[in-house]
Amino acid sequence: MAYSVIYLLCLNVCVISSFLISGNQRSIPVRTYNSLVSYLENGAEVRYFFNISSCLQSASPPFKDIPVFGGEIKYFSASKNSGEDAGQLIFSNVDYINENDVNKEIHTFWIVNDTAKVFWAQPGVYINITDNISGIYCKWTEGQGSLWVKNQAKQRQLTSFPEIKTMLTFGEEVGWVVNITECQCAAGKGNCYHGILGDTIRGFKIAKDSSIHFSTSMTTMFPVAMNFIQLTTFVRVDANNTATFITRHLDPSTFEQDDIDIMSCPIHSGSSIGRGAKFYVN
To answer: What is the layout of strands, in order, in the sheet containing 184-185?
Structure first.
């Protein structure tokens, strides 16, 4: 009987250890802001986890809810550290919740180097309620939150329009990333958004002229004015191996438009000197 117990205990430990080792082989922790942006710029799948209780500086926080947030970074906007200008990464998640009435809950993350500004609110279905925004600063490189990148061993870059179209029509999940500095701004050089955008294509349309169309959007909290902004990107990929990106900043409650940028980019060739929009299959 004792031998059976020891055997079962050893078996359980071995199975758990194997699972953890396997997990560590699939994902690795992200340690710095620069490496985080580099992973995202190269199409990696990055997941996040923030336990707000670990970020508290006071035993009596100004908000009653102390949540735990986690998920995968999908649509993001990022900029790199440059001289005295600190880079920043913005991503957000919107969920519908069913309490007394149907409502939306927005979780927004602004990461600047080692600090993550985490905000959450229930702005109503029409995103026009701003009096319940909660927020806190988390030192994510010091254990107040964590970011993990999935092993990219199986990642494949798509370097032409036919490849992108084939992968989409065969049911593959295609991700995209574009560094706007490698694109041509319709309003002239220096007059467009100059950061990095990326997401996964969730739904698409192929038009009569064979061009591929898709879009993505993110509702985020702006920490200075403590209001909401919707960033929407429309993408068109053409058979001549170019992609057009149109970004709009809107007030999500009124749909008043702040600005619009139109950028034309080549599809990245995959070479070390290539430039333009990158498309991936993970």
So the answer is: 184-185, 257-266, 242-250, 227-238, 212-222, 205-206
DSSP 47: E
Residue 270: which of 280, 262, 282, 257 has the closest Cα?
A: 280
| 264 and 229 in a common domain | yes
Nearest one of 119, 148, 115 to 48, comparing CA atoms: 148
Within this chain, do residues 139 and 190 fall inside the same structural domain, yes or no?
no
- What stretch of H or E contains 215? strand 212-222
Of 104, 124, 150, the residue that ends a domain is 150
- pLDDT per residue as tens digits for the range 192-249: 878 999 999 999 999 999 999 999 999 998 887 788 999 999 999 999 999 999 999 8
State how far the Cα of 253 lies from the Cα of 115, in Å rounded to an integer: 29
Radius of gyration of the chain (CA): 21
Q: Are 161 and 265 within one domain?
A: yes
Q: How far apart are alpha carbons 246 and 267 in whole angstroms? A: 16
Whether residues 97 and 166 fall in one domain? no
- Which of 150, 165, 197 marks a domain boundary? 150
For the entire predicted model, the pTM comes to: 0.85
